[in-house]
Amino acid sequence: MFKSNEFVNGGEKQITGLEVEVKTYIVPYEYPNQTLKLCHSTDNEFNSNIQINLTNLNYSTLTTVKNDFTWTITGDGYTAIDFDTPFCYNGNDNLVLIWENRRNDFDTKHGYAECWFDNSAGESWYKYQDYTYPSDTSTGTVDSSYRPNIIFKY
Question: Which contiguous run of DSSP H or E holds residue 36?
């Protein structure tokens, strides 16, 4: 979850993409079957009963910004992803990024995303299941310490 006060110069923005900081991948590395969604939320952190289908999260304007794409990593540093559909950020609410990895297999050559460490609030939430995407009613794990380093492009 990205807080409204984290955006430089505040206000409404047309978000057109993002960049993720990655490290130690054997390159080129590809993640097929990825989908990105954004939405607004009046919640300030994730709680433990949020489900994959966003039950128990106060959200609005859920938008699929990039659908069924292959994310290719070519080296350490920030890797850009341009959206197919821009997201109109309202400048007031918190922003939730939903990243669906529907790859459904394992590969030992992957690296990791550099993360920001806070340890004060549940700003990251994840759910995984081996070889298949988790069910809509499953709950995940709140991470109150780490959130991947992401830059939003606008």
Answer: strand 29-41
Domain that holds residue 9: 4-153
CB within 8 Å of 52: residues ≥ 6 apart: 127, 134, 135, 136, 137, 138, 140
Question: Letter for the amino acid at 21?
Answer: E
Q: Left, alpha or beta for 42 (phi > 0: left; psi -120 to 50: alpha)? A: alpha
Please choose, from the candidates 102, 108, 109, the residue with its C-alpha nearest in 3D space to the C-alpha of residue 129. Answer: 102
User: Each residue of 15-71: pLDDT tens digit?
Assistant: 999 999 999 999 999 999 999 999 999 998 888 888 888 899 999 999 999 999 999
**Dist CA 142 CA 127 (whole Å):** 9
